[in-house]
Description:
Number of strands: 0
Largest sheet: none
Order of helices and strands: HHHHHH
Structural class: mainly alpha
Strand content: under 5%
Number of domains: 1
Amino acid sequence: xxxxxxxxxPTESAFEPEDFFAPEDDENAANLTEQAVxxxxxxLMAVGSWIVMMGIITxxxxxxxxxxxxxxxxxxxxxxxxxxxxxIKQNEMAPYTWLIGLIWFLIVTLWIxxxxxxxxxxxxCDASQKLYLTFLSPIEDSGLIDGQGRLVGTWPTxxxxxxxxxxxxxxxxxxxxx
Length: 178
């Protein structure tokens, strides 16, 4: 049992409840809804800019546009949109779109890993081959999810990560000017 400097046992006032449990700031709790709405708005902006970019690529026939160019555009167009939108409307939640992209990619990755293989569908592939051929290979495809792994997993993830990076650059500029 610990004692106070005078040798007496500790009193109740030595262990005030606020020392252990800081009361939650009501203002922070009220901001959670606003923050969630802003993350949703920024996510929709990122995905929307990617969808518009994919619509434009569709006019040029997707078969004629190389996979790597589509990947770069999927990253760069939302990066520019995120940077521009965040410069106009400064918001601390904008860079967190990369987390939505990561979560989306992990969900799709688990879906791909759970799929069975067979003829014309990554026959005798191990887990790393499934993922590489589905999401990253510029010349081959795994055949899983009808060959749309890049469309479902890679390119939307690149768009969300690009938007978050662009937004972060815009927020850094704000901090330097202040």
